[in-house]
Amino acid sequence: MNGTRQIAALVVAAGRGSRAGDGLPKQYRVLGGRPVLAHVLDAFMDHPAVGAVCVVIDAADEALFREAAGDHAARIITAHGGATRQASVAAGLAALGGSAKVPGIVLVHDGARPFVSHPLIDRAIGAIEAGHAAAVPGVAVTDTIKLVDGGSHVTETPDRSALRAIQTPQAFAFDALVDAHRAAAFAGTSVTDDAGVMEAAGHPVLVFEGDPGNIKLTYPADFEAAERRLGTPAMPPALDDIRIGQGYDVHAFGPGDHVMLGGIRIPHGQGVIAHSDGDVVLHAATDALLGAIADGDIGTHFPPSDPRWRGAASDQFLAHAAMLITKRGGRVAHLDITVVCEAPKVGPHRDAIRARIGEILGIGPDRVAIKATTSEKMGFTGRREGLAALAIATVRLPGA
Ligand SMILES: Nc1ccn([C@@H]2O[C@H](COP(=O)(O)OP(=O)(O)OP(=O)(O)O)[C@@H](O)[C@H]2O)c(=O)n1
Ligand SMILES: C[C@](O)(CO)[C@H](O)COP(=O)(O)O
Q: Which ligand is nearest the CA of 210, by number?
């Protein structure tokens, strides 16, 4: 490959993975000891012809994304996704279009396809460099495909030899795809892949040889198959090593107009004095998780002396601790948190905090308890000098 056009990868990872069952959105679940998205990012970040990578994420998943991207994060352009895959791709195209070096070629890839390989990426790029405006990988189908009507009666049996199951990465001339997406949005055209967007705009789409191993993780069984492929033992060990961890954090009030509690911004007449965003709930919860796996404390992993954590959103600290547990094959069973302060009132925000912590950890809010108390006007919390939080975590690890 000796083209001169900048090549960008656009990875869509803003979906909720509802068909994959409970837990974190599928692109952040652990596969072979690492988040699914980390496998995808390695493939594109390590490819010598790919000059830029844009990942489209859900606004609520910033912490999970940073955890999955690891050292790659600083070199990745991010955008926030929309309600559909198509809207998420459009958001990524807008981000790439506004970047310092607008690409000539874009490879759109699902964040849920972790087995994308360099030969497949080479074929995608090669097709566009050969002069096509749109090229997508396809594999022959092995089942007979039928068209059915609303009553599930067969209306047609297409010739199987002409059918292809289409995968990603789908490769396009950047400007042509941007225009086609704009036209589709204007016309209200809704399709399930970007080839469809180009087809609607009248572009021919080339199908090149896909890779049967390049599966899209969609259902729980896909994860089991993917783990088997990576050699993970079929029967996971029982999670019967039950650990309890505790955490405590305190911050003094200072100038400001809100406090962060459990990832929720709560209006208040004061802020807190802190290196990060000073979220005592998330800090105590993070320490409780780290305590349960006896892996240091929040300061060990995120030293206050490191300028990267100045003003940082604390959800990434909790996501990191949760990932350490997941990497050990474990699971957070429960978090019980108590906030101590005279004000602000925590009760009205309890459910939002439980939901947000559940979202960060990939567990239901029924596994997160938030309690609050004053200290009866005694001590530093009673004098309204600051606020504190205590957390107890129950963690299940694989038995020895
Ligand atoms: N609004 C959306 C919907 C999907 N995607 C991404 O598009 C890819 C393919 O979509 P799909 O497998 O359908 O993912 P989900 O929408 O997350 O799954 P589900 O339909 O089961 O909820 C995934 O990487 C997903 O994260 C996206 O970026 N934005
Ligand atoms: C883009 C795609 O992966 C090609 O097969 C597919 O169309 C995505 O569909 P989904 O329902 O959004 O997973």
A: 2
- Mean pLDDT, the chain, whole residue set: 95
Was domain 241-397 assigned CATH 3.30.1330.50?
A: yes
Question: 204-261: per-residue pLDDT in tens?
Answer: 999 999 999 999 999 999 999 999 999 877 677 899 999 999 999 999 999 999 999 9
**Counts of helices then strands in the chain (DSSP H, E):** 12, 19
Overall residue count recorded for the chain in this entry: 400
Query: How many angstroms does the Cα of residue 14 sit away from the middle of ligand 1?
Result: 6
Q: Round to whole Å and give the CA distance between 26 and 391.
A: 28
Q: How far is it, in rounded angstroms, from Cα 78 to Cα 102?
A: 15
Asked if 112 contacts 15 with a C-beta cutoff of 8 angstroms, the reply is: yes
Domain 7-229: which topology?
Spore Coat Polysaccharide Biosynthesis Protein SpsA; Chain A (3.90.550)
Three-class SS of residue 285? helix
Pocket of ligand 1 (CB under 6 A): 12-20, 27, 56, 81-85, 88, 110-112, 216, 218
Question: How much distance in Å is there from the Cα of 342 to the middle of ligand 1?
Answer: 43
Decide if 249 contacts 287 (C-beta within 8 A): yes
Give CA separation, 239 vs 233, 288, 325, 332, 361, in Å: 15, 18, 12, 11, 17
